[in-house]
What does this fold into?
Amino acid sequence: MANERQSAFDAIVGAARREAETGPPPVHLWNPPFCGDLDMRIAADGTWYYLKTPIGRPALVKLFASVLKREGDKYFLVTPVEKCGITVDDAPFLAVELQREQGARGQVLNFRTNVDDWIRCDAAHPLRFEPEPHSGGLKPYLHVRRDLWAKVTRALFYDLVQLGEERDIDGRRMFGVASDGAFFAMAPADSLRDLT
It folds into this structure.
């Protein structure tokens, strides 16, 4: 069984390397048979683990990230010929850097993920804000691609709050942040005290 898992791991590495040579792999087009679960986990802090050991090579993490696919609540590493399940504690990526610019439709927010992808926040790559059950605050997420999300770090969340504004949305005053002509509501304006 361990040899089969290692074989699947090696096959995914090889296939991902081959696919990466020609650009981003077309993961959304692949629907290979399920080959079982790998002992691989993406922790809430963005660290990737294999056999409970952190993967210390950023290039390998980027390679795996390029062949990551989500189906429902499950995550897989896929190649054209196989699909292996992995565990994701929260979100598969972290948004770790924010650059702000002015565009034709106003403020544009660009985020860098922990695997060095730059994502322009817009209607196709929205921000969402979920209640934090323990603290009463919010957990922000950015859509990266095909139902894969990046959790926005706490430091960047405070930056978003600083850039925030109030708008009337469906007859209710909401606090949120705008990017590339889209507005992403965080919370009712009268509950701002709960954001931090």
Observations:
- The helical segments are 2-20, 58-66, 154-163.
- The chain is about 20% helix and 45% strand.
